[in-house]
């Protein structure tokens, strides 16, 4: 059986996993990125963590069919042109560097694209052709309130606090309205909500659905479902592996 490796380069750590051809995570490792954030050091960290993951999974290298790497920034033809979390990185040939060291085909993708691919491969969107994925930040702001986390707002709302409840209702209303506009432009079958804000209970997702119903045009071409992402914390790993899987299938 062929297996694939997914690497997720984040702002503070590198995550890696070995993934089966069915999208099942077989092993997982994570290492913190230290003070030296140069491309040479981080690429070296990626190489080390990939080797660690393969050893942990107990899989022969001959069964590894490809490696996918997700990173925040602009990727073009295997080169990371610029990275959002690594200001000094310019035109880093990540695919070539990893390929030369690990001797397996490598595919470089944007980390947001990797998260979408994970949901389409094994997540909420696995049975649809057209969908939109919105990543909801975990911070809310108001003119009279300094920046606070969504977790704090939801915890306060659970105690019955009217201000917190109003903030949540307002956020859901804006998101429902935004979903209507996305649907009118793109006509998806499904909208997937991911990120920390989407993890705060089904009632918040339902509030977004209710707002969508309130604002929507009744003659939209297709009924649209709004659901929470299901792959979770390791979506970057699984999605990067999905790109490697797709590339191998196209060969």
TrEMBL record:
It comes from Aphanomyces astaci (Crayfish plague agent). It comes from the Eukaryota. Gene3D superfamilies: 3.30.420.40. This is Glucokinase. InterPro entries: ATPase_NBD, ROK. One of its GO terms (molecular function) is N-acylmannosamine kinase activity. SUPFAM superfamilies: Actin-like ATPase domain (SSF53067).
């Amino acid at each position: 059986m062929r297996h694939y490796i997914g690497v997720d380069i984040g702002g503070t750590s590198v995550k890696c996993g070995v993934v089966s051809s069915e999208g099942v995570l077989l092993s997982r490792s994570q290492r913190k990125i230290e003070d030296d954030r140069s491309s040479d050091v981080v690429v070296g960290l990626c190489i080390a963590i990939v080797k660690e993951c393969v050893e942990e999974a107990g899989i022969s290298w001959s069964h590894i069919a490809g490696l996918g790497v997700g990173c925040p920034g602009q990727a073009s033809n295997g080169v990371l042109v610029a990275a959002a979390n690594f200001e000094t990185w310019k035109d880093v040939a990540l695919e070539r560097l990893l390929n030369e060291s690990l001797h397996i085909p490598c595919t470089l993708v944007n980390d947001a694209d990797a998260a979408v691919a994970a949901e389409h491969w094994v997540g909420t969107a696995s049975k649809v052709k057209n969908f939109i994925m919105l990543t909801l930040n975990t911070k809310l702001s108001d003119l009279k309130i300094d920046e606070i986390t969504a977790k704090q707002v939801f915890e306060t709302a659970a105690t019955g606090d009217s201000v917190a409840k109003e903030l949540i209702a307002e956020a859901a209303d804006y998101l429902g309205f935004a979903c209507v506009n996305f649907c009118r432009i793109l006509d998806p079958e499904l909208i997937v909500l991911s990120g920390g804000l989407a993890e705060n209970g089904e009632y918040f997702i339902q509030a977004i659905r209710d707002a969508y119903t309130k604002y929507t045009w009744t003659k939209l071409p297709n009924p649209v479902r709004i659901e929470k992402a299901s792959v979770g914390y390791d979506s970057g790993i699984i999605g990067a592996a999905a790109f490697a899987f797709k590339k191998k299938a196209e060969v």
